[in-house]
Amino acid sequence: MKVGIIGCGSIAKFRHAPEYKANKFVNEIVFYDRNIERARNLADMFDGQTAPSIEELLADPSIDMISDCSSNEQHHLITTKALLSGKHVLCEKPISLTIEHAKEIVDAQKLSGKKLMVDHNQRFTRAHQKAKEIILTKELGKVLTFRTTFGHAGPEHWGVNKSNSTWFFKKERSGLGVAGDLGIHKVDLIHYLLDDEIASVSAFQGSLDKVNENGEPIEVCDNIVCSLKTKKGRLGTASFSWTYYGEEDNSTIIYCEKGIIKIYNTNEYQIEVITKDGEKVFYQLENIQTNDNQTTSGVIDAFIKCIQLDEDPLVTGEDALSSLKVILGIIEAAESNSVVTI
Question: Quick check: 149 and 162 in contact, CB under 8 A?
Answer without folding.
Answer: no
